[in-house]
């Protein structure tokens, strides 16, 4: 195998951001506006500086100045030809053999920032957010708890990617604290519901993708062009109040149990960067209806972990180890299904996977499954136990695809639970 492409910027072998990745995000240095950057090692490359110097003037960019914006939406709307071209330009400028940036100290000082000295913002103005339910093992485990193993999956589950419409306004970027919500709860043996802070506070390990060019109202996206509408993926924690959910969810699905806060990672890993980690989608039985059958559908080999650090710990303990391949429905199927009735997606919309659980006990992607609704509490290395998340707990989700000598990583999405107000 040839040696992997290298940058003139030092990148550790276990870094999530080698020259093979180049994820896009919105960063803000102190005392200047937010703009578009790309992560490389421990640095951020400021694309607005390169744009100003004329590096993104080819036809694919259609004359727009998309990288001085404080959200990725304008760049997302340009579509895959512009995304590929931008990646090619950036990869060339960062390559070990290219002198443009490497040998120009003044330009490097302008265009490169230490990640630890900038603030990351939400990558896009997210107009709409949808959360799928696409992991077989998650759906099966939750269904088993609610209805028993014989009726674990609802009859529709293997025929369509089940989803609900979430709330975009409460999506926050990694690092934000999450406040324990209040709500109505009713234990099965109680005569009437009561009101107070949720006592079954949970995380959900998910990924989500950002929509690139949208589709016109009334015009479904055929499955074989679905990925033309998908820019890239982030990690997501769909914080959940299980006791609120149990009482409110029938018959219309999740509402206040989910929409108080959803955290995403700041760096968007593009489908281009993930291409070498594609795997065939496992055979689906029953065969889906024709509109959900792609010519070459695929999944990705992405390792995913959730780590818990309580206020009494000085390290994060891994409680979930799973993989993106545990998703039954592909991202192309999710997008094709979402638009098949003519529903219009728009640039910056966020479509999430649902909790990604695998077949083993340690690959379960939320406390609900890990502790089986609190019946089997987790014991942490310092002796503490958890049925659910407690105030002061920090939950961090991370993920990466392992290449030959480098990692294409997502960084992390982290948040600490704080007490109800
Ligand atoms: Ca979810």
Q: Helices and strands in order, then pairings?
A:
Layout lengths: L23 E6 L5 E6 L2 E4 H6 L20 H6 L1 H15 L4 H4 L2 H7 E3 L3 E4 L7 E4 L3 H12 L15 E3 L5 E3 L4 E2 L2 E4 L8 E4 L3 E2 L2 E7 L18 E8 L2 E2 H7 L13 E3 L4 E2 H4 L3 E3 L17 E3 L2 E7 L7 E7 L7 H9 L10 E3 L14 H4 L7 E2 L5 E2 L7 E9 L4 E12 L3
Parallel strand pairs: 6-22, 8-16, 9-26
Antiparallel strand pairs: 1-2, 1-5, 2-3, 3-4, 6-7, 10-11, 12-15, 13-14, 13-22, 14-16, 14-17, 18-19, 20-21, 20-25, 23-24, 25-26
Calcium ion (CA) binds next to loops.
Explain what this protein looks like in three dimensions:
With 421 residues, this protein is α+β, with helices and mostly antiparallel strands. The protein folds into two domains: 24-121, Fumarylacetoacetase, N-terminal domain (SH3 type barrels), CATH 2.30.30.230; 129-418, Fumarylacetoacetase-like, C-terminal domain (Fumarylacetoacetate hydrolase, domain 2). The chain has helices at 47-52, 73-78, 80-94, 99-102, 105-111, 136-147, 242-248, 271-274, 331-339, 367-370, and strands at 24-29, 35-40, 43-46, 112-114, 118-121, 129-132, 163-165, 171-173, 178-179, 182-185, 194-197, 201-202, 205-211, 230-237, 240-241, 262-264, 269-270, 278-280, 298-300, 303-309, 317-323, 350-352, 378-379, 385-386, 394-402, 407-418. Strands 6, 7, 8, 13, 14, 16, 17 and 22 form an eight-stranded mixed β-sheet that branches. It starts with 23 loop residues before the first strand and ends with a strand. Bound molecules: calcium ion.
């Amino acid at each position: 195998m040839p040696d992997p492409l290298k940058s003139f910027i030092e990148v550790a072998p276990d870094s999530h951001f080698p020259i093979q990745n180049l994820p896009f995000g919105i960063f803000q240095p102190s005392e200047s506006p937010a703009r578009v950057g790309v992560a490389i090692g421990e640095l951020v490359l400021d694309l607005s500086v390169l744009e100003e110097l004329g590096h993104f003037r080819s036809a694919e960019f259609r004359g727009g100045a998309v990288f001085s914006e404080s959200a990725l939406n304008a760049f997302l709307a340009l579509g895959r030809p512009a995304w590929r071209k931008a990646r090619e330009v950036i990869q060339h400028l960062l390559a070990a053999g290219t002198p443009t940036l490497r040998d120009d100290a003044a330009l490097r000082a302008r265009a490169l920032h230490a990640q630890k000295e900038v603030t990351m913002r939400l990558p896009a103005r997210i107009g709409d957010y949808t959360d799928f339910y696409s992991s077989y093992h998650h759906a099966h485990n939750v269904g088993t708890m609610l209805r028993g193993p014989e009726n674990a999956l609802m009859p529709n589950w293997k025929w369509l990617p089940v989803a609900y419409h979430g709330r975009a306004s409460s999506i926050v970027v990694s690092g934000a604290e999450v406040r324990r919500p209040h709500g109505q709860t009713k234990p099965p043996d109680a005569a009437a519901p009561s009101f107070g802070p949720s006592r079954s506070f949970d995380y959900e390990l998910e990924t989500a993708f950002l929509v690139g060019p949208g589709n016109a109202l009334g015009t479904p996206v055929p499955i074989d062009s679905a990925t033309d509408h998908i820019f890239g993926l982030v990690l997501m924690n769909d914080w959940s109040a299980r006791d609120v959910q149990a009482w409110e969810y029938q018959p219309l699905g999740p509402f206040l149990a989910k929409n108080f806060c959803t955290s995403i990672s700041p760096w968007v890993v593009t489908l281009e960067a993930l291409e070498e980690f594609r795997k065939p989608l496992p055979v689906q039985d029953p065969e889906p209806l024709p509109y959900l059958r792609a010519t070459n559908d695929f999944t990705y080999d992405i390792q995913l972990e959730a780590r818990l650090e309580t206020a009494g710990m000085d390290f994060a303990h891994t409680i979930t180890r799973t993989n993106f391949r545990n998703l039954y429905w592909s991202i192309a199927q999710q997008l094709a299904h979402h638009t098949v009735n003519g529903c219009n997606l728009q640039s910056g919309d966020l479509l999430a996977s649902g909790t990604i659980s695998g077949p083993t006990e340690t690959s379960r992607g939320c406390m609900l499954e890990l502790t089986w609704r609190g019946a089997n509490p987790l014991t942490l290395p310092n002796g503490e136990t958890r049925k659910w998340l407690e105030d002061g707990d920090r939950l961090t989700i991370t993920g990466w695809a392992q290449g030959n000598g480098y990692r294409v990583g997502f960084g992390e999405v982290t948040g600490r639970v704080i007490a109800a107000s």
